[in-house]
Each structure stands twice: as C-alpha cells, then as structure tokens.
Amino acid sequence: MPLIIEVKNLKKTYKTHEREPGLINAVKSLVKRKYEFKEALKSICFEVEKGEILGLIGPNGAGKSTTLKALSGVLYPDSGDVNIMGFVPWKDRVKYVKNIGVVFGQKEQLWWDLPAIDTFYLHKDLYDVDEKDFKKRLDHMVKIMQVEDIIKTPVRDLSLGERMKCKIIAALLHNPKLVFLDEPSIGLDVIAKDNLRDFIKEVNTKYKTTFIVTTHDMQDIERLCKRIIIINHGEIIYDGLLKMISERYIKSKIIDVKFEEKFKNFKFEGCKILEKRTYELKIELNLKKQKINTIISYLLDSFKVADINISDPSIEEIIKLIYEE
Amino acid sequence: MIKKSYAIARAGFKEAVAYRFHFYVTLVTSPLTLLIYYFLWKSIFEYSNVDIIRGFTFEGIVAYYALNMIVGFFVWSNVDEWLENDVRYGNLVNNLLKPFNFIFFYFFNLLGVSSLSIFLEMVPFFLIAIFLFGVKVAPVFYFLMFIVSIVLALLMSFLISYFVGMSAFWFKNISGIRRVKRVLIVFLSGGMIPLTFFPEVVQGIFKYLPFQYIRSVPINIYLGSYTYLETLMLIGIQVFWIFVLYLIVNGIWNRAFKKFAGAGI
User: Fold this and answer.
1) With contact defined as beta carbons under 8 Å apart, do A55 and A227 qualify?
2) Where do the domains of chain B lie?
3) Best residue in B19, B86, B94, B102 for a mutation probing chain A (most A CBs within 10 Å)
4) Which of A64, A72, A93 is the best mutation test for B, with the most CBs of B within 10 A?
5) A93 contact residues in B (CB cutoff 8 A)
6) With 50 as the cut, is the pLDDT of residue B264 above it?
7) Of A77, A234, B24, B217, whose CB has the highest number of CB atoms within 10 Å?
C-alpha cells in the first residue's frame, strides 16, 4: 500500500507562564513572569500507509493531541516535514482540510445553538458533497449511530454522548480519505461504542479510508488497530504491531471480584492480591502460570460471587514496563 | 465559492434567530433613545434661536440620529469578541478545520447575523422613523447608494473588529481593548455627534482615517449631502479602505496563526 502520511522530525514547544497560588503571587506576576517552555513534541518521525487504522496511545499530556493538531493543519509546528497526500497541512490548510475529517473528543465542533442537522447541511456545502451521496450517507450514519430523534434538537440541549455521535457524523459526511479521531469514545455507552467501532471498520474496508485514533480505551485499540504508536513525553517509544505489545507486555490480567457475603480462605496459585476488603478482592493474574477460565471457575465454585470484572493493565502500566526494559 | 459563502451566512442567520430576543429588546429601547435626542435637540434649537446649527436643521439632525441608529444596527460587529472567545477556549480549531478562507469565514457568519437585523431592527425602525419622527424617504439614487455604502461599511467595521480581535492571540483577555475600540469607533465615525460639530482641523484629519466611512458617510449619502459624483467617489474610498484593511489584517493573521497553540485539546 502507498504511504498517505510521512512525518519527519516534527517539533513543537509551547510557551506558558507559571504562577504560584495566592494573591501576592498574582500581583507579582503582573511585573515579572516566569515562562516555562514545554516540549510537546521532540522530533517525531513516523509513516502511515493508505487504508491503515493506526492507534496513537499514551498517557495524558504525552503529545497525542498536539500531533493530531499539527497533522490536521491547525497548529503551526516549530520545525519538521510533514507530507500528507502531497500537502503540508499547516501551509495548504484550505485545500488540505477538504480531504480530511477530524473529531476532537473534548471540543465542541457543532454549531452550539443550532440542531446538528444544520451543521451537517453546512458541511455538505462547504465540502461540495453531492446531494444524493449526502442523503444516502446521512441516512446510513444516522441509523448506525441511532440519532434519528436528536438531530433536530439544538446541540446545547444534547448530552455529551449524543453530541459525540453527531460530531462523528459531521466529520465523516464528506467521505474524507483520512480521518483523525481524538478520543472518539468519550461519553459513549457500551452499545454506542460498539456501533462506532463497527462503523469505523466498515468505512475503512469500503472506502480504504485511513484512520488515526487516539484513545485511553484499550478495547477501542484491540478492536480496531493492527498497528499502534505509543507516545510519551513527546517521543515515540513504540511503533509496531499491537500483537507484539500484548504478547510481550500484557502478561497479566486485573480481576475485580465482588462477593455477596464475607469471603474466607481465598487461595490460588499464580496470582497476586492487590487489594482486599470485606466484600471485595482485586487480584493480578499471571497469564504464564494460569488461565483465566480456571480462576473464574474456582471463584464461582468456592464463593458466592456478585460481580466479576476483568481488565488489562492500563496503558500507563504498559509504558512503565517498556521503560523498565 | 458563492454557495459556500451563502451556507456560512445562512448558519449565522439561523444562529441569530436562536437569539432573536436581543433584537426585540433593541426595537423597544431604540425609539426611546431617539426620543431623548429629539427633545435634547429641540431645546437646543429653541434656546439658541437659529434655524441651522453646523449645517443641520432640526429636522435634519433628527433624521441624522434616526439613520445613525439604522446604520448602527447593521454595521455593528462583535467579531473581536468572537475571536477572543475562540482563541481563549480553543474553538478556533473548528473554524480552522473548515475548507474556507479563515477571515471571510467570520465575515459571512457576521453577514448572516446582520441580515436578520434587517428584518427585525432596520425595517421596523425605519418605519418608526418615517411615521413618528418625520424622516423623509431618500431619492432612488441616494437610497440605492446608501444600501451599497452600508454593506461596504459592514465590511470595514468587520475588518477593524477583526484587527482588534486578533490581539487576543497575544493578550488572551482583550475585554478592555474591545471597550476602548467601541467607544473610539462610535465617536470617530460620527455615531455620537455629527462630524461637522468638530473643529475644521479635526475634520481634516478624519478625512484620512477610515472611521467616518462606517457611519457618517452612509448617513450623509442617504440625507443627500453629496453630489452624485461625490457619492460615487466616497464609495470608491470605502472600497480602497477595505482593500488596505484587508491587507493589514491578512498580514497580521499569518503571524497570529503561527502563535496559535489551540488551547487545551
């Protein structure tokens, strides 16, 4: 597959001022300000192939959003070369953004006082979408996202999740070749998350649309991405297949159990107790020594279990492991 | 291009409809303000015992203030406030993601908002001015030129607002600067008192500033204060100023964009 994105030595430093709390310090800052330079991106390099779904992950403040902003043409970096479909995003902004769709999960992207449908129609004209294509795509997306009832309500009256669904529709209506999704699953319920993932997959296979997704939800990544980039403190610390990461670093599962009565005599080989309360237990299961189903059946057989929750170690923990090597 | 501009203006119009209450309020308060001017000038004329003050008859000065309000409804631009908010809260990103010239995106949005004021403020108030305050309907030529002139005045007012608004890229909070701008523009454009009330020297200086072309000139075109040729020339000067202001604004915008960091996303 040909390359759609080439990023070389992308750098961006933010300048902000810091101030100690308190009135006296506020007055002081009138005269003298201490500036702080924060290196958000330290020479980032990577490439993306056409039709890929790339996961961009990392802890808060790692530089994920800064990367997406620079790649979507709204941020002027300090230096570096970026070539996306022949454009330099921040220089050919107007021509370039016509080809991309962007969702910033934490930004209000719809016209606040108007119903979402008005934003959709505005986009139709701004992106020169053919009337027939527009109708077809809109109907399809509205059905998948289950927003038939809310697209005629002013956006300010919608909930976080409802707005998110509409934002995603607005970003994809013009069938962009490249889509940036910055935390697209914030505020979505389980069903909506599932629908969103299916929809991204569908668009990806049908139109060969390239997606770059940042998220804190490991399930998003597992369901969507073959390849991931892990970024921390403005540097890429991993760029490769997701499978490698899970095989090498996800060696354990976190299991939360809630009991219906006080439990006694919990004993199981190959697991570490992280937290113990009267009705609750949090354990880390070593996958090399034990399988998940053996501990589940042990728990169900020996105790009166109210609830079980199994999760992967968080991204932060994986990053810690990568650093430890 | 026309289709896109229209789409942006339409969104601005719809947004203004969502806040139409604001227009109803001005429709009640504006005649009251005009009434104050009416009585103020009535007593000035009565006590000074003259028919003409600085080129204005009593009817003339009332017409001036009535038109001043009508023009004010239309050319009023708070794009500086929009920009300030968009910079401070990072919403600028949304507009940057739209495939459209960034400066004109705001202009067409404003044009949509101002269009609603035609129906909800200008026309009703125009009727009030004619039937209650005896303002005369201008001859066809001056009326048409008046319309051309206020559209150009809106563009000028927009560009000056935009110029002021861009300071938010450097200062973040510009509410003080905005207030100074508002007072200065109203004063220098003839929105407070007609410019003929200023000393000759000051009037001479005003000719070389853009501000009088935002209010004083369109009002005087309506009132027929100029010959046909003068009117056309003044409109030409408006176009010239739009050109100059755009070059300045565009130049600063290119630097402001580099400074923009997209606050908190």
Assistant:
1) yes
2) 2-259
3) B94
4) A93
5) 96
6) no
7) B217
A-to-B residue pairs, Cβ atoms closer than 8 angstroms: 77
Tokens, residue B231: 């009117």
**pLDDT above 90 (res B157):** yes
Enter the tokens of residue B27: 């429709």
Across the interface, which of B4, B19, B258 has its CB nearest the CB of A76?
B258
Look up residue B213 and give its amino acid. Y
User: Token pair for residue A177?
Assistant: 């070749």
Question: Residue written as tokens 């009703």?
Answer: B124
Query: Looking at the predicted complex, does its ipTM rise above 0.90?
Result: no
Closest CA to B38 of B69, B7, B79: B69
Answer yes or no: do A118 and B94 touch at CB < 8 A. Answer: no
Domain A250-324 belongs to what architecture? Answer: 2-Layer Sandwich (3.30)
Interface of B with A (CB under 8 A): 3-4, 6-8, 10-11, 14-15, 18-19, 90-94, 96-101, 257-258, 260-262, 264-265
Give the lowest-confidence range in A256-265, A280-289, A316-325, B18-27.
A316-325
The hierarchical CATH code for the domain A3-247 is 3.40.50.300
Closest chain A residue to B92, measured at CA: A74
The pLDDT > 70 percentage for chain B reads 98
Instruction: Give the H or E element holding residue B147.
Output: helix B140-165
Q: What is the pLDDT of residue B261?
A: 62
Would the CB atoms of B97 and A97 count as touching at under 8 Å? yes
CA distance A173 to chain B (A): 13
| Phi, psi of A174, rounded to the nearest 5 degrees | -90, 15
Strand partners, B141: none
pTM score, two decimals? Answer: 0.85
Phi, psi for residue B261 in degrees, rounded to 5? -115, 0
Question: CB distance from A122 to chain B under 8 Å?
Answer: yes
Sequence-separated (6 or more) residues with CB below 8 Å from residue B180: none
H/E stretch holding B40: helix B21-48
The full set of domain ranges for chain A reads 3-247, 250-324
Calculate how close chain B gets to A66, using CA atoms only, in Å.
Answer: 8
Instruction: Answer whether A233 touches B (CB < 8 Å).
Output: no
Contact B9, B115 (CB under 8 A): yes
Interface test with A, best of B22, B97, B257 (most A CBs within 10 A): B97
Q: How far is A35 from chain B (nearest CA, A)?
A: 14
Cα angle: A103, vertex A107, B86; to 5 degrees? 125
Q: What is the C-alpha separation between B102 and B67, in angstroms, rounded? A: 32
Of B4, B15, B100, the CB nearest to A114: B15
